[in-house]
Amino acid sequence: MKKLLFQFDTDTQPSVFDTVVGYDGGADHVMGYANITPENVTGLVEGAIFTRAPKDKKNTAIFVGGSNMAEGQKLFTAIQRCFFPGFRVSVMLDSNGSNTTAAAAVAKLAASGTLSGKKAVVLAGTGPVGQRAAAMLAQEGANVSITARKMERAVEACQNIKRRFGVDITPLEAIDNVARAEAILGAHIVLATGATGVELLTVEQWQNNNTLEMIADANATPPLGIGGTEMMDKGTLRHGKIIWGAIGFGVLKLALHRACVAKLFEDNTQVLDAENIFALAKEMA
Question: pTM higher than 0.85, yes or no?
Fold first, then answer.
């Protein structure tokens, strides 16, 4: 029986990236649907859950994608509300690649050193990857802060994280590189999750930071988020700090994404969100 992956995307076009990884993860067919919302998804889910016998439902799965994690989370919840005993399929949430990207970055940091009890700063951390990563760091026992150019955005992000994950994150306002350099004073871990092509720190602003142990940068487009690092860094030692670049931990991100897709077809009860995706990332790292 064919393994069918239904890609429900909140954007105007289904993600090509997610489609390719869906096939690489073991799906025989990936069918993408765009502009999916909680209001129009019910019929699609019913088509997925009513068409195969109970023993065969493991061969049907749903992937929720798109660029907006907030909308993806709502859709992910709405899909599960359509399920009832005997009629469900496995489902995964990875809007904007944020769960797999954050999980891979934090898993590589965890494999490189101790997170518990350490001070971690997520630079430009109000986006979906930053919020997910901040939560994962906090769940590993780190004392986490996130920066934003405006305090209200940082506060809102911390509140979102608290509601979703139940962990406390400290908001910090940092309007420029100088302010971000001050924000990482005393930090042991820095993770940059800013917009593409925006340098958040120069090399001079972190190379002599005596407390800093590990850095990860999720930006793969020059200029990188952290000056003086390389996108291919894989636990590279620079100025006494362990560095992970976007491609360096991106190898795990892609492998993790594929492994999650494969897991969807193990049975029809898988619900893959940040927590269990991160648990799998730690095993793989």
Answer: yes
